[in-house]
Each structure stands twice: as structure tokens, then as C-alpha cells.
Amino acid sequence: MTELVEHGELFIGGELTAPLGTEVIEVISPHSEQVLGRVPHASRADVDRAVAAARRAFDEGPWPRATLEERIEVVGRIKDAIAVRHEEIARSISAQNGSPYSWSVLAQALGAMMVWDSAISVARDFTHEERRDGVLGPILVRREPVGVVAAVVPWNVPQFTAAAKLAPALLAGCTVVLKPSPETPLDSYILGEIAREAGLPEGVLSILPAGREVSEYLVGHKGVDKVSFTGSVEAGRRVMEVASRNLTRVTLELGGKSAAVILPDADLATAVAGIVPAAWMNNGQACVAQTRILAPRSRYDEIAEAFAAAASALVVGDPLDAATQVGPLVAERQRRRSLDYIRIGQEEGAKILCGGGRPAGLERGWYVEPTLFGGVDNSMRIAREEIFGPVICLLPYGDEDEAAAIADDSDYGLSGSVWTSDVEHGIDFARRVRTGTYNVNTFSLDMLGPFGGYKNSGVGREFGPEGYGEFLEHKMIHLPAGHGSH
């Protein structure tokens, strides 16, 4: 039994502070179904306090007025502390959301550290001010911090998504109110402690665990200049609607239904080794997961057999066990959702090639077997809707044009991959697919390039100079004719 983690205060403006509300969030282990932690549920009054502190820190405080190197020094200390405490962070997240510990170390903790590190590199190389020759005379173009940022992060990769927002926002000179999910608030206290010890000035960062109603109040707050949100399409639409009342700028990183396309000349062993961890990553709870696998009809049976065998061999169990490859889903509602889609898929005529139920020997916990459907048509709900669980579809196609058409026939456009013996041909195929990130014979997410989606997968970008720029406003200063000329 993991020791109960209890926090009685909220992190507001850099200090642990008694909450103004009385609600409490109970964090439930998805493995044991037992309570593993309790934290205060932030109230609207707490949001008011945090936004007011952020507003003061931005309007009057030293952080936006510090040099970039001074900000890099503080953010670098945050990055270094995450590296030192990465095992503690990984254990905390795995205990809360069921992410396999081995994956948590790499993606949840060290991955977050890499986001902080990459953001420092981007900020250091970014052009914050430049002189141009205008039509009527010289102009100065400046990029200045956007202001107070509301950063709303999900439960599936809480530190990674927090870093994607916090690192560029802080480096740009913004102040931030971070809103963790009620499923995973415990690791945010580690982050708050790290930020305080790193020397962030008063008011620059607040962390408020809360549910949907308080989140909506935060993104609609008149004191907020920018909302950066990661979550579902439904929630993203609501964020945009609420933020639009104040014309608040928004960045939305939403869902996906990404296609991994296996071309006829692909090496099957390479494709299986690359796609299986990309499909079932984080128990299928990843927006970039390759949840549709497209196989040529000429090799369909061979590919189906290989993927079913690989999925069946995945080790399912306690997320804190280093051998586990697939853990439990974050909540009973998510387990029920996956099982509902498995039933829907069967009703639609798809065939279960492996999985489909509760893993043997795991009577407790929110577990679903790694499941692969064969004979899927792209019009089926299981091929069109984001399941966010370990349920993957294998779809046949005829020629390459049909493969590209199926990949694009989606409301989403977040990720994707192509597998082929000809990398140059794979690059040509990648250019055809309307999606924000793409992979040729690999699967990764590079923090120095822009990440985001086409269509319903989002608005704006994270990572790279494009993501950093989302936290900056552009200002043009007209100069008198002849100024600065020699």
C-alpha cells in the first residue's frame, strides 16, 4: 500500500497558502482503486487570488523586466531539479494515472526535463527585436510577453504538458496560473516546490488543482491575457467559446486519430517494433497515439497476425512494476469508455484479433487488455472517434492513393507515420497527409519543432520557435526617416 499523500494548502503566487474553499480532491489509484492522496480543490476565490498575484507580478514585478539571461538562469534551475527528481516525479504520476513506470521515467519526467531544456535553447536563439526598412521609413519590430497565462493541463502527461506551456511562457516573461487535472494533482506540488526553490519571483506562478467549473472560470477570467489548453475537442471548443468573450488569445492542443501507414515495401519487423509502442503508448491514453494502422490488402493477413501477436505479448499489470508495458486506465469512466467502444466495434462488424476484455489475474483496477480490431472500415465509429484507451484499429487499403485518402479522412490531424523501405518516397507520402506532425520509419516528438494539429486537433503550436512565439505579442515602432542611417 502506497503511503497516503496529503496536502492542505494551495501554491499561490509562489507560496503555500490556505485555500479559501472547503472542497477536497481525492486521488484514486487506478491499480488498487484505493485513495492515495488528497489535495484542496481550488475555488473561484482562489482563482481570483492567483490571477491578481499574476497580474501584479506582470504589471509591476521584476520578472517581465528581467533580461532573458536572468530568466534562463531561473528556468535552468527548474530543469536541473526535474532531472534530479525525475524518479520521484515518475512514480508520482504512474501511481495517479496508471502510466507504466518505465514509460513515465522517459516520457513523463525526463521528457518534461527535455521540454524545459529545449525551450531554453529556443529562447536563447530567438529574435526578440529587429530593425526593418519600412515603406515610409525604418521600423522596429519587437516581441513582448503576452501577459498573464492560464495553462490548463490534462491527466495523461501532466508534467510534459505543463512544461510545454510553462517553459516558453516563463522564458518570454509571462506570469502563469497552472491548472492541473483533478486526477493528477500530486506531482504538481513537486513542481511548485521546485519552482519556489529555483527562485521564481512572487506572483509569477500559481498552481490550482480543480475540476471543470473552476477551470472554466479561470479561462474566462478578465485578468487572463492568454489561455494555453491541452485536452479533448469538446473541452477545447468550450475553452475557445468562453475565452472569446474577452477576446483572450488561445492555444488549443486537442485530440487525434492518427494513422500509421504501412506501405507494401515496408519491412514488417521494423514496422511492428515501431508502431506497437506508438499505438499502445501510455495505455493508449495519448493524443498522438497511432490508433489506426493501415495495411495493404496484399499483405493484410501477414500484418494482422504480426500485430495481434505483438499486442498479445505486451505485459499488463501494476504501473509501478518496471516490467509493465500497459497499465490501468486513469479512471473507471475511461475503462468503461474503452469497453463501450469494444462493444460498438463488434456491433459494427469489426473482428477482435486480440484482447477485448479484462486481463486475466487482474480482478481489481481499471484495466483493459491491449485490443486490436481487424476488418475495420474507416466509416466505423471505432475508426473515427478518439477512444483514448488501448483499442487499435487495423484497416485494409488498396493502393497508395487510397491509403492517403483514408489517413486524411478524419476530423483530426495531429500525428501520423509511414513505414517503407524507401525513405525519400516516405517523405513524399508525408507531404500528402494533412496533419501537424509526421514520422517516416520512426515515431517521436521533437521539442525543437512545432507541435500541433490541423482540423479538430487544435489551434496554434507548441515547442520550437513557433510555440515560443505563442506567448509573445508583436509590436511595431515607427522611427523617423533617416534614423540610424550612416
Overview of the molecule:
It is a single chain. This protein folds into two domains: 5-254 and 457-475, Aldehyde Dehydrogenase, Chain A, domain 1; 259-440, Aldehyde Dehydrogenase, Chain A, domain 2 (3-Layer(aba) Sandwich), CATH 3.40.309. It is of the alpha/beta class. Strand 13, helix 9 (268-279) and strand 14 (292-296) form a beta-alpha-beta unit. The longest helix has 25 residues, at 101-125. The protein has helices spanning 44-59, 68-84, 86-97, 101-125, 158-172, 186-198, 212-219, 233-244, 268-279, 300-312, 332-348, 381-384, 400-408, 423-432, 464-469, and strands at 5-6, 10-12, 15-17, 24-28, 35-40, 129-133, 138-145, 148-152, 175-179, 205-207, 226-230, 249-253, 259-262, 292-296, 351-354, 371-374, 391-397, 412-413, 416-419, 439-440, 454-455, 458-459, 472-478. Helix 2 runs antiparallel to helix 4 (101-125). It is built from 15 helices and 23 strands.
